[in-house]
Design brief:
eight-stranded mixed sheet; 23 helices; 29 strands; alpha/beta
């Protein structure tokens, strides 16, 4: 095709040459569009050609120069391997897009149509063939490249052999982007030949979420550019955050105008951002977008330090995505890189390539020909001047060429291959292996058709696509590289921790891995012991957690407020995001074992909370034991009163023929003393661990024995009254005098109580039971009465007997009798009734073993009251005043 375009000369040069390009000629070319230098262009005046626009200023990011060198190294390495592309070599043409959309379009057209001249839409006699373009660190760069390259979909490309004379048409097969960007970009461009040499960005989103959940960071800051990519990231992450209990404390959006260095907008953005970062409680900040965000963030941190005082440190956990590197301009060489100490980054997987560092060490401005980048890089990186060919110099020190890139700090250049450079390296190999397969297929075809020497090697567009997708290959170090059906690299990310040093250098320490192809449970792995945190955050974590003296071993907090420790639960704050809450103590009988729980859990019945309410401990079994002081005391009193009763009974038996014993029916006296003896002994049934036998006997035995005792007292009282009434001549009560009356009263009165107890045992018998809830921390081993109604029927009937006895005795207290017991029975019944009336409220107000102790005390005190009030006067006469225990004294006192 001949070149006939107005205003252009095929033999002439472009009016304005692109200053930074690197061209290595060959029949087969791989193009590269990189972002290495930032330029400031004047406003468009539309009075001159766009190529003649004036560059006002240029700033270089030296760290990105490795991207350019990685492509050159990969092509050099492939050309040294003869079995990949036999009888052919690869060349390259690399341009800088100057971080500018206009220049991206311009350099893309240059790749298509220029051989040291600029003629859009025309080819001027060249037979070189561009088989792929590598670029797109940013998503907008990739889409801008696709806008141009997508217009030139030539259906056939011909790559000639050395003796081919066939005319060849230019063919662009694909764009291989080494930057990570959202999947929507590819669909929006409508350019299917766009391949990503990094995994799908959605994998990173999940990795960020896993990282936040692992460290329990719930209050998060977000920083991104105010563009479509940033909006997509925000919407995706906010949805994932809300499902996992995470809130965004603030959202910092970098205006698009800041990206193109609008000074007024830059200053306004920085001043507005300072209080946002400074005053937020969010210690973890996720940074998404591009490398420029790190430079703006550094400016914000410097502004914060100035506002707080130069000696003040300011630390947060900066979490960056894979497309972001800690790369600064050379004029920022004095900035303190330690502001980023402890940052966590997702990085593309990379490995050290043998020979790459040696290749870097050979780079010198005097040795690389055709490299339009090396001069500016060398001058800005080493602050010296590379002399022109005419030998002129300026005021700067002249570069010797002996400077070494390995002496540059890590934020300006790295000798080890970065993740982005490794992606570029693999992109070159992807194109080379696809061409190798096509060449091998074509060669086999020629052999099958008996053609020893092919005249041309024809390539269809779809062939390269099918070979790039789902066709794994191994690069020169043996790593498998494979793109899926969507043109995305199948792989994962490394998790690295930035460790800085006082000399303003840093290293990246691998602390984890995000591998979607790993086995379940191992997709996200992390080694927490290898992390280092910013000293400010370590101090904050130490002062809050109080867990460790070694500050770096304590992960920092990133919460809206202090954590709720075990024993407390979170309580929502009205009007705030759900991540902001108050801490409320767990209710009774409930605990929380972990921090920041929304609810407390109830302990099992056989356990109870400790005083901190953070653990359930087993309840102790509680019952009135013979081993404890209270049980020993009551048992001793029971035995003591039993012994006293037995002694009284013995005395009365020995003195059975004396008047004082015979005066009031000694058989009733023996029965009463025996009943009291059994009453005192039955108190022992209430002490010790309850079992089936003791539960059945204790209340029924107590009720029946006391009924017999009270019945005996009632019989004695009625006997006194009947005897007195019968002493009058002609009284009808004379026939009632005798033992039959007393025995009948005792028997009939006691049988009623026996009947009540029999019904109780037959219908609702008492049984051993465990009370889990009445007393905190104790399991009360008790006798369940079976029927509370029957229990109170027993007590009620006994009270009825006592009331009748008290009434009769009170009425008979003044009857004339030398040994009249009525007044003593009256007082004893008064004591008895008082004890049991006070028993009911006391019994109901106590729990556990103390309830049993109250009942035992009432049994002992009421029995002791009967014993003392009725028998102490008689024992006194029998023992100390035997002179009064005579029949003559009895007769004299009667008269």
């Amino acid at each position: 095709m001949t070149c006939k375009a107005p205003d252009y000369n095929c033999n002439g040069n472009d009016p304005v040459q692109i200053l930074h390009e690197w061209y290595q000629p060959s029949k087969i070319l791989i193009g590269g569009i990189f972002t290495h230098i930032f330029i400031l262009l004047s406003e468009l005046s539309f009075q001159m050609h766009p190529s003649e626009e004036v560059i006002n200023a240029a700033m270089m990011i030296p760290k990105f120069y490795q991207h350019i060198l990685a492509l050159a190294f990969a092509i050099h390495e492939i050309n040294e391997i003869p079995n990949i592309l036999p009888n052919a070599t690869l060349g390259f043409r690399i341009y800088d897009n100057y971080h500018n959309a206009r220049m991206t379009y311009r350099t893309t057209l240059d790749l298509l149509f220029k051989l040291h001249q600029f003629l859009p839409g025309y080819r001027c006699g060249t037979k070189t063939h561009l088989m792929g373009v590598i670029g797109g660190l940013r998503s907008d760069t990739s889409s801008q490249m696709a806008d141009i390259l997508g217009l030139y979909k030539i259906p056939q490309g011909v790559i000639p052999s050395t003796d081919s004379g066939i005319e060849n048409y230019l063919h662009i097969e694909c764009i291989l982007s080494f930057g990570s960007f959202q999947p929507a970009v590819k669909d929006e461009t409508g350019f299917p030949s766009l391949y990503r040499m990094v995994p799908n960005e959605a994998i990173q989103y999940q990795g960020i979420l896993e990282l936040l959940v692992h460290f329990r960071w719930k209050w998060i800051g977000l920083m991104t550019f105010d563009d479509d990519g940033g909006e997509h990231f925000m919407q995706t992450m906010e949805s994932m955050f809300s499902k996992n209990g995470i809130c965004s404390a603030f959202t910092n959006k970098v205006p698009v105008t800041v990206r193109i260095f609008e000074m007024s907008d830059m200053n306004k953005y920085i001043m507005n951002s300072i209080p946002v970062f400074r005053d937020s409680k969010a210690n973890a900040v996720v940074i998404y977008g591009e490398n420029a965000n790190i430079r703006w963030l550094a400016a914000i941190i410097l502004g914060i330090k100035e506002s707080l005082g130069e000696m003040t440190s300011f630390g947060k956990v900066w979490i960056t995505t894979a497309q972001i590197d800690f790369a600064l301009f050379m004029f920022q060489r004095t900035w303190d890189i330690q502001m980023f100490h402890g940052a966590i980054s997702f990085t593309s997987l990379s490995k050290d390539i043998p020979g790459f560092q040696t290749f870097l060490q050979t780079v010198s401005p005097n040795q690389v020909k055709g490299n339009g980048f090396i001069k500016d890089f060398w001058e800005q990186a080493f602050d010296c001047y590379v002399p022109n060919s005419d030998g002129s110099t300026d005021l700067h020190e002249t570069c010797t060429g002996e400077e070494s890139m390995q002496n540059l700090p890590g934020q300006f250049f790295q000798m080890s291959m970065t993740g982005h450079s490794y992606s570029i390296y693999n992109a070159v190999y992807a194109v080379a292996h696809a061409l190798h397969i096509m060449y091998r297929t074509y060669s086999n075809y020629r052999k099958m058709n008996n053609r020893d020497k092919p005249n041309s090697w024809q390539v269809e567009p779809w062939q390269l696509h099918s070979l790039l997708r789902n066709n794994p290959f191994n690069n020169n170090i043996g790593d498998e590289v494979m793109l899926n059906e969507h043109g995305e690299l199948i792989g994962g990310f490394d998790l690295t921790n930035l460790v800085t040093f006082p000399n303003n250098s840093y290293v990246r320490v691998k602390v984890g891995r995000l591998d979607p192809q790993a086995a379940p449970g191992k997709v996200f792995t992390i080694n927490e012991e290898r992390f280092e945190w910013h000293k400010d955050l370590s101090q904050k974590a130490f002062s809050s957690a109080k867990l460790s003296i070694v500050e770096e071993q304590v992960p920092p907090f990133s919460l809206c407020n202090e954590q709720c420790y075990p024993g407390y639960r979170r309580k929502k704050k009205e009007g705030n995001k759900f991540c902001c809450y108050d801490c409320s103590s767990c209710p009774e009988e409930m605990i929380s074992k972990q921090k920041d729980l929304d609810y407390c859990t109830r302990c099992p019945e056989e356990h109870f909370p400790n005083h901190r309410k953070d653990e359930c401990i087993p309840k102790i079994q509680s019952f009135l034991s013979f081993e404890e002081p209270l049980g020993v005391t009551l048992a001793s009193l029971s035995l003591l009163f039993s012994l006293i009763t037995a002694l009284v009974l013995t005395v009365f038996i020995k003195q059975k023929d004396t008047p004082i014993v015979k005066a009031n029916n000694r058989n009733l006296t023996y029965l009463l003393l025996t009943s009291l003896l059994l009453c005192f002994l039955c108190a022992l049934l209430f002490i010790g661990q309850p079992n089936k036998v003791t539960c059945l006997l204790r209340q029924t035995a107590f009720g029946i024995i006391f009924s017999v005792a009270v019945s005996s007292i009632l019989a004695k009282t009625i006997t006194v009254v009947v005897v007195f009434m019968a002493s009058k001549p002609g009284n009808i009560f004379r026939k009632w005098v005798g033992k039959r009356l007393a025995h009948s009263i005792v028997l009939c009165s006691s049988l009623v109580q026996v009947g009540i107890c029999a019904v109780w045992l037959a219908s609702f018998p008492p049984f051993p039971d465990l009370d889990m809830h009445s007393v905190s921390g104790e399991i009360i081993v008790e006798c369940n009465e079976g029927s509370v109604t029957m229990f109170y029927c027993v007590l009620g009937y006994m009270g009825f007997q006592a009331t009748v006895s008290f009434t009769v005795a009170f009425l008979a207290r003044k009857l004339p009798d030398s040994f009249n017991e009525a007044k003593f029975i009256t007082f004893s019944m008064l004591v008895f009734c008082s004890v049991w009336v006070s028993f009911v409220p006391s019994y109901l107000s106590t729990k556990g073993k103390y309830m049993v102790a109250v009942e035992i005390f009432c049994i002992l005190s009421s029995g002791a009251g009967l014993l003392v009030c009725i028998f102490s006067p008689k024992c006194y006469i029998i023992v100390f005043r035997p002179d009064l225990n005579k029949k003559e004294q009895l007769i004299r006192r009667i008269h």
